[in-house]
Amino acid sequence: MLIGIDPVAEAKVTFISRTVVQGRALIPGADREVMIGRRLADKLGVRLGEKIVVMAQAANGELGTAAYGVGGIFSTESASFDGAFAFVTLPAAQSLLALGSRVSTINVRLEDRAHVSAAVALLRARIGGTDVTLIPWQELLPQLEDMVRLLRVVSSIILAVLLLVITTSVINTVFMAVTERTREFGVMLALGTSPAALRRMVVYESIALLLIASAVGYGAGIALVLYLGHAGMDLSSFFAGYSAIPGLTGIVYPRIFGATVVPPGIALLIAGVLVSLYPAAKAARLDPVQAIRHV
Length: 295
Hints:
Blueprint: E1 2-5, H1 7-13, E2 20-23, E3 33-37, H2 38-44, E4 51-57, E5 63-74, H3 79-82, E6 86-89, H4 90-96, H5 116-127, H6 137-140, H7 142-180, H8 182-190, H9 195-231, E7 233-234, E8 251-252, H10 258-284, H11 288-293
Parallel strand pairs: 1-6, 3-5
Antiparallel strand pairs: 2-5, 3-6, 4-5, 7-8
Helix pairs in contact: 7-10, 9-10
């Protein structure tokens, strides 16, 4: 399948230009070049710099013919995609198919996947009654939607397990701190510190510990995601069963979304405060005399 693209706009919507392994990606004005998948190049027996002839029925019913030099070869790790797709510039495709200034497809990419439904509803309201067909990605790739749902369930389970492990670590840490500082707490109680004040102090220290740990963890995590978002993560072995889905590759470029970062942090902070209440209450109930004698 030969697709005409605007190289500058395409780079903002897809990652195809970053998968070029030989030659270069398409650039504006390169109307005699074609960027072809590695598997398709192998099927056709062409190499970088060689020419391929394309014939297609134009919009006016005539047979359109054009020759393009292979300027770039890409590899996305998707067998179906690399073996079936090639790209030329939009003016080259419009000339081949006698389309003039018309286009057949416009791809829209949103910053947040959660806004897809609202965007689809808005676009349908504006273009309703025309001959334009609007297809959201869920209808275009139902297999991918199933995989995304599965990943959401798995992510929720992993997050729940991590939350349990972290809260257990917090309560153990606070308990150890209370045990090690038993004499200190006994002296404070003997000097007139109220149990309520002691209880608040333990809780505040737990909150401070959580905030510091969260700041370090979020900082390291954001830095890692920003790096991997540019370099990509090779998860080809996990996507082997989905290679038949067009465009789905094993190279993942993670991104940061507030909806996936903020709620876990808030949940962790609340859980940490709640689990610190029991050790704090235990510290507040200490007998000053016995606490001072504690070794």
